[in-house]
Amino acid sequence: MTVYLHERDLPADVFAPGPIAVDTETMGLHPARDRLCLVQLADGQGDEHLVRFAPRDYAAPVLKAVLADPHRTKLYHFARFDLAVLKAYLGIDAGPVFCTKIASKLVRTYTDRHGLKDMLRETIGVDVSKAQQSSDWGAPVLSDAQKDYAASDVRFLHRAVAVLTERLAREGRTGLAQACFDFLPWRAELDLAGWAENDIFAHL
Ligand code: MN
Question: Where are the domains of the chain?
């Protein structure tokens, strides 16, 4: 199990076929203000690949091809944010989508703890640290703790998806989940277009 750090783009052909777990680290929570610093990816075979960006250099043709590949499902935890950031900075729609936070909300209805840490602990019994969550992802050199934290955000998603997929089937909510996943790229577009705080489905 190795964490690879790449500057500006992925090397060609690093992933096995199949779904790819994806996460992003940014300078903050507002895509229009806070730049994309890092994209983390894993194919579930044991290694993680981190792609780091210099400011204003988002060419990354290999990474874009992987993220935009319509034949590869991308696994996220809270895809809404990652899809918006990837659209804003890389100009791509990074679907099709499986979002473990949406799936968690649809099956773990007995709790309101749907953060990555709680979801992973309950679905696959893994404890991940969130200690580096708020750190300077734009720093010229990332610390080993930052790299390991970033990699751990994609390391376990394939395993969690397997459990959540079974539970969605058990509760008869597979179709509902898929409809939500299919809408997520549009939800991200709404966020970027100015409807982030305003629920267009609400009465008022
Ligand atoms: Mn993360």
Answer: 3-195
Question: What would the pLDDT profile of 115-162 be if each residue is shown by its tens digit?
Answer: 999 999 999 999 998 877 789 999 999 999 999 999 999 999 999 999
Where helices occur in 69-173 by DSSP H, the ranges are: 79-90, 100-107, 116-124, 144-155, 157-170
Over range 65-92, report the average pLDDT. Answer: 98
CA–centroid distance, 88 to ligand 1, in Å, is: 17
- The CATH class of the 3-195 domain is alpha beta
The rounded Å distance from CA 30 to ligand 1 centre is: 15
Rounded to the nearest 10 degrees, the angle between the axes of helix 116-124 and helix 157-170 is 70
Tell me, what's the pLDDT at 132? 78
Give me ligand 1 centre to Cα 39, in Å: 9
How far is the centre of ligand 1, averaged over its atoms, from the C-alpha of 134 (Å)? 10
